[in-house]
Specification:
Number of strands of chain A: 10
Oligomer: heterodimer
Largest interface: A-B, 44 and 67 residues
Strand content of chain B: under 5%
Distance between the termini of chain B: 27 Å
Structural class of chain B: mainly alpha
Number of helices of chain B: 8
Radius of gyration of chain B: 17 Å
Radius of gyration of chain A: 22 Å
Number of helices of chain A: 7
Number of domains of chain A: 2
Number of domains of chain B: 2
Largest sheet of chain B: none
Order of helices and strands of chain A: HHHEEHHEEEEHEEEEH
Distance between the termini of chain A: 37 Å
Helix content of chain B: over 70%
């Protein structure tokens, strides 16, 4: 896409004007690490594809382990002991790519806005909260998504209600439990899904009946 | 930004997309000052502006796959910087807005001494424009938008935007010529 043909004299004057501002010294190491990791990631994907059958076997074994954890008695930790920090997407990306990567397209979408918080016990990350607002052809979607990264049996008391959800579903071979009802002109849904690396808890309100599945699918 | 600089910037963006981290330093050398000027005009203080610029570079690295080689790389970078700046303010709980009237105030502080006199003259000329003319100049010459994009940003028709830009350019050239004559 070409920009508008501007007056040449003015363009030169403005170029000189804007270029007079001296950029500050900034730390580019995080950005450069992301660039390097993206390159490594694309190479890694090619290796994984070539070992496709082995990978599929590993996934099957991992799912078996996850189902076992799901059926194991949970140990709840208290919310009061946690420290919360509001953060940017870049911090989520640094701490937990398994949460940041599925949200990347939404993060950079023009019709979506996400606020992130991270919850720590001492210096250990327990879970990430993403408050997502999306405006689309259906109207407005409001989603609260929690991604808990503690080991399988330890979970916040805040998430108790999700383990008691009764309806069952499956996306791309990943099982989840959920509830969904139509209230006041929109769908109100909740779900819990256990993935390879994180426990996902979602509350979604939307005019779209498939909104819940759309966000679960990002992590499935 | 000259056509040559735009082409160079697109080359750097292409290299970043190909996974060359050093290209980010080259990109920053080329447009870092402009990113900082935009961050400063929205962020209101130097410290926030520096954080915004740093976060913008991270976002460029993260979003590079969405950049298409045939598009205007400079406009793409500036749009990212603007969005990061507005998000930064929202997260601080501060009203997030782009105050274009305050933007053309760059020739202060740590500004290039050799360019300061001409910069002040240009700012005096810009200050004589009305608010809509200043916005048209901002979108066209700073954000490097097309007439259509400028029209959309200002909420006016494409023909109205083209007329506004033309009028602003004529007035600026007139002020600058008279100002140069008076100075000389």
């Amino acid at each position: 896409m070409k920009s508008m043909k501007k007056d040449e004299k003015l363009q030169k004057s403005f170029s000189e004007y804007f270029d007079g501002v001296k950029p500050p010294a900034v730390d580019t190491s995080v950005a450069k690490r992301i660039i390097s990791e993206k390159k490594k990631k694309s190479r890694l994907i090619k290796v994984l594809v070539s070992f496709g059958s082995v990978f599929a076997c590993l996934v099957i074994i991992a799912v078996g382990i996850m189902i076992h954890i799901n059926n194991t008695k949970m140990i709840f930790y208290e919310e009061g002991a946690l420290r919360v920090e509001s953060v940017f997407y870049s911090a989520v990306k640094e701490q937990c790519g398994a949460v940041a990567d599925p949200l990347e397209n939404l993060e950079y979408s023009d019709n979506a806005h996400i606020d992130y918080s991270m919850y720590f016990e001492n210096d250990r990350l327990c879970y990430i909260r993403a408050e997502i607002t999306v405006l689309n052809e259906y109207g407005r979607e409001d989603v609260i998504l929690y991604a808990e990264v503690t080991d399988g049996r330890h979970t916040s008391e805040k998430f108790k209600k999700y383990y008691e959800l009764e309806s069952k579903g499956s996306l791309s071979g990943t099982n989840y439990i959920y509830s969904k009802e139509y209230v006041g002109g929109e769908w109100v849904a909740s779900a819990y899904m256990l993935t390879d690396s994180v426990k996902i808890f979602i509350d979604a309100q939307s005019p779209n009946s498939k909104s819940l599945e759309k966000y679960l699918y990002l992590f499935a | 930004m000259t056509d040559g600089e735009r082409r160079q910037l697109n080359i750097y963006l292409g290299a970043i997309r190909d996974g060359v981290p050093e290209a980010l330093d080259s990109l920053y050398l080329l447009v870092g000052g402009r990113m900082f000027a935009l961050a400063r005009s929205i962020g209101k203080n130097i410290s926030d502006a520096e954080d915004i610029v740093q976060d913008s570079l991270v976002r460029i690295a993260l979003k590079i796959k969405s950049f298409s080689k045939d598009t205007n790389g400079y406009a793409w970078v500036m749009k990212i910087t603007r969005n990061v700046a507005l998000d930064f303010l929202r997260k601080k709980g501060v009203r997030a807005e782009e105050n274009i009237d305050d933007f053309f105030n760059l020739a202060c502080g740590d500004y290039d001494e050799d360019k300061r006199d001409d910069a002040i003259l240009l700012e005096q000329a810009i200050n004589r424009l009305d608010s809509d003319e200043r916005k048209a100049v901002y979108y066209t010459y700073y954000m490097d938008m097309t007439v259509r994009e400028t029209a959309k940003s200002m909420g006016i028709s494409k023909s109205a935007a083209a007329r506004l830009i033309g009028r602003a350019e004529n007035r600026l050239k007139s002020f600058l010529e008279n100002g140069t004559k008076e100075r000389d």
